[in-house]
Amino acid sequence: MKKVDVLIIGSSAAGFAAAITARRHYPGATLALIRQEEKTPVPCGIPYIFGTLGSPEKNLMPDPALAKNHVDLIVDRVTEIDRKAKTVTTAGRQTIGYEKLVLTTGSLPLIPPIPGVKLENVFPITKDVAHLTRLLEVLKGSRDVVIIGGGFIGLEMADECRKLGHLNVSVVEMLPHCLFAVFDEELCVRVEEELSKVGVQVMASRKAKALLGNGKVEYVELDDGNKLKADVVVLGIGVRPNAELAEKAGLKISHTGGIVVDRHMMTSDPNIFVAGDCAEKVSFFTGQSTRTWLASVATAEARIAGANLFEIRRANKGAVSVFSTKIGDLACGLAGIGEKGAQEAGIAYIVGEAESVDKHPGSLPGAKLTRMKLIFRKYSETLIGGQICGGNSVGEKVNLIAAMIQAEMNADQIATFQMGTHPLLTASPVAYQVVNAAEMALQKMHRN
Amino acid sequence: MKKVDVLIIGSSAAGFAAAITARRHYPGATLALIRQEEKTPVPCGIPYIFGTLGSPEKNLMPDPALAKNHVDLIVDRVTEIDRKAKTVTTAGRQTIGYEKLVLTTGSLPLIPPIPGVKLENVFPITKDVAHLTRLLEVLKGSRDVVIIGGGFIGLEMADECRKLGHLNVSVVEMLPHCLFAVFDEELCVRVEEELSKVGVQVMASRKAKALLGNGKVEYVELDDGNKLKADVVVLGIGVRPNAELAEKAGLKISHTGGIVVDRHMMTSDPNIFVAGDCAEKVSFFTGQSTRTWLASVATAEARIAGANLFEIRRANKGAVSVFSTKIGDLACGLAGIGEKGAQEAGIAYIVGEAESVDKHPGSLPGAKLTRMKLIFRKYSETLIGGQICGGNSVGEKVNLIAAMIQAEMNADQIATFQMGTHPLLTASPVAYQVVNAAEMALQKMHRN
Q: Which single residue of A5, A164, A268, B371 has CA 20 to 30 Å from A212?
């Protein structure tokens, strides 16, 4: 029987980060990673296969990084965990012993419970190269594509489909706006303006009632009675934790479907750690369960799990939620919570806003207007959220905000923040957005 | 006699930020800003006049922001401050009374004490529209330009001169490398490679001994005996605080030439505040005097000075130093101190390094390799410095590092940082540079 010190199940972002972290922290340990697929797509890169990369083969997790870190790669499917014997068994009839086990089994796409979802050319987004290759082929031969779900993955798929050039692209979203589960309304509206500019039709406040067709899908029937022509339907309505193996092994599962972990990413079995979408998450802000399935949270958890395997070295302060995306020419992002999130949690808050171009002077070619909104706790004045839209620098600006949130910086500290600025790379120091937004919030805090 | 609650002298980044901050913090106060120039250039934008913007008129401080904030703009030169009477007098024979005075008189270019600096077509970089217009005209009609000084302004001028297309551009630097006063050697070498790629000739470890010519400059004579042909010479060897007015008024001046201030940006006269290049600076890291003349430090100081005029509201923790620039296609930056700075201050430190592309997967078009080096205090493990080079996102990445430094985050907090990532905007979450560099430093810290 093969036996390793550390066995990692799963090969997406969390699996890789857990393996590399375990190697760094426990240089002498034997490590193996087992996954069911021959090749694993880069999860966040999946939409970009369709309009930009041109092939799922150009969007694969870099397996050489495993070999470089002396992590054995085993391609097989684990069917059972025997916690007493500390072994797993596989579909390929292997038994592998472990000292410590890390589950990074990820998530599965939600399938809406409506008639017709089994019709041909209806595609959920799965992390499966063959499935994604088929979707790409079908998209190439189609004219009308309907995407159900206006979240990040739905909109990124929509934007990439329109880049193919020959498709009519519609997005059906049941909430009043796309991305409304994450962003505040004004930012959702900006994104919808951009979608409209690039030719994507958004149908918000509407539900898909049924998928119609004879063998192949032909129409999406909406709850307002309209029928949308559809050669292909993409389902992007969200995911659920894939905790099946853990549940079968008797590990505690939360009401949200995630595997219960402590702050050290340890499960109810001290020899089993978990990271990523399959792990239960608590909010950095409220300490309550939260549904934040993001590669960045997954890798942060994996870096905690991987470091804690043989000695507890790190603790998880909870999921912050940091997103960014780009639709058309508009990059946008959020760190922490929005106004809606603050209201739902009952947090007293103050908003500060600022906008300026992302180069200086604004007459420089390519300068883009950047808008920023920051949200502070009203009484401690610590930063709890930020939303931005603008040019490509939004991708790292949202991380600047994320750092300020995680360091619990307050409005005065941010208003006197010393940043670097450069004409070609940032706003001017006088107009730097995060500083001015904090200053505007301070004016409201101390108005009297 | 005109009298205002707050009078600000100077109209560059610090003057603007002080005026706007004073307006926000003291809504009822009467504010005026006095400057000697009709128009003020955006300081950091000056090099970009020559190759990119095409005219100094496209690089002006946005005066409408003053009117919008109800700040009276007076164009005149202050010749004297009467601290007892609380008035200033001007070259235009005005007397203006103040309750609080803010000096943002900036800096003056250093002129090297060598023969020939008064020859025609030898240009220091001054914040003067007419002077910059003449330099632009002369550059257009020249063939050989020699830039003395390979610091930020010298290299940015060199890169812009070569964008004009018809110039042979050389940079003379007395240190072993360009930017060597700020960056560690390996980053200087990267920048020099880029300069060579775009056709700028760097002559390091050499001093200009004399400028030769008959009326107009014709040659730069180096200390190695070489003579460089020069139709025009640009002097970019640094600046000194412009503290003349303050000195005449009897305010305390430091040995570095800056006006002495306390942590509240108050001078030895409680009715006079100072911000920007004319103010004495202490290091965030050592508490010692430091020569950090940057618009970003200047505006942070101005936001402190402006808020403290009638009540002390904010304190200055010292200058962090955050720079970024772009030479050719390479953006690079530094926050805090480099290895050299740590060694000079005698700080025990640990370095962590990481590199990865700034999109993911790396097969995405336009992905650029980004290298990052972080420096931590060896014992407290807090971050004190970071250096990066790569694509345009370096501009905000250096600010992410700056925030982590100012929040005194330690290596473990950074290694478990939750960031947002997106294929088109950032590195992958597995390869995110700041997190991996911190993890590499941790491995060294806890090797045994």
A: A164
Tokens of A66: 């495993």
Question: Closest Cα partner for A257 from A237, A279, A272, A284?
Answer: A279
Interface confidence (ipTM) of the complex: 0.96
- Which residues in chain A have their CB less than 8 angstroms from residue B304's CB? 416
Residue whose C-alpha is closest to residue A258's, from A239, A271, A238: A239
Percent of chain A, pLDDT > 70?
A: 100
A429 interface with B at CB cutoff 8 Å: yes
Report the CATH fold assignment for A2-108+240-308.
FAD/NAD(P)-binding domain (3.50.50)
Confidence of residue A447 (pLDDT cuts 50, 70, 90): confident
In the β-sheet with B330-336, what is the strand arrangement from edge to edge?
B322-327, B330-336, B383-390, B369-377, B349-357
pLDDT, position B447: 73
- Spatial distance between the Cα atoms of B112 and B214, rounded to a whole number of angstroms: 19
pLDDT higher than 80, residue B324: yes
Second-level CATH architecture of B111-237: 3-Layer(bba) Sandwich (3.50)
Residues of chain A in contact with residue B406, where contact means CB-CB under 8 angstroms, are 409, 413, 417-418
Task: For chain A, say whether B37 makes contact (Cβ under 8 Å).
Answer: no
* Phi, psi dihedral angles at A100 (to 5 degrees): -130, 140
Residue B400 has its nearest CB partner, among A324, A396, A439, at A396
Distance, CA of A384 to chain centre: 19
Domain span(s) for CATH 3.50.50.60 in chain A? 2-108+240-308, 111-237
Q: How far apart are CA A332 and CA A309, in angstroms?
A: 37
Q: For residue range B21-39, list pLDDT tens digits in order.
A: 999 999 999 999 999 999 9
Go through A342-378 and write b for each residue having 16 or more CB atoms within 10 A of its CB, e for each that does not. beeeebebbbbebbbbbbbbbbbeebbebbbbbbbbe
Q: Whole-number mean pLDDT of chain A?
A: 97
Of B331, B404, B421, the CB nearest to A44: B421
Location of each CATH 3.30.390.30 domain in chain A: 329-445
- Residue B324 and residue A426: Cβ atoms within 8 Å? yes
Considering the domain delimited by B329-445, tell me its CATH architecture.
Answer: 2-Layer Sandwich (3.30)
Q: Any chain B CB within 8 A of the CB of A382?
A: no
B430 reaches A (C-beta below 8 A): yes
Q: Are strands A227-229 and A232-235 parallel, antiparallel or unpaired?
A: unpaired
Q: How many angstroms separate the Cα of A396 from the Cα of each of A166, B395, B423? A: 33, 9, 12
Disruptive mutation site among B132, B301, B430 for chain A (greatest number of A CBs within 10 Å):
B430
Q: Rounded to two decimals, what is the model's pTM? A: 0.97
- Distance, in Å, from the CA atom of B74 to the CA atom of B92, rounded to the nearest integer, reads 11
Tell me: the pLDDT tens digits for A52-85?
Answer: 999 999 999 999 999 999 999 999 999 999 999 9
Element (H, E) at A355: strand A349-357
Tell me if chain B has a CB within 8 Å of the CB of A45. yes
Please give, rounded to a whole number of angstroms, the shortest distance from the CA of A58 to a CA of chain B. Answer: 6
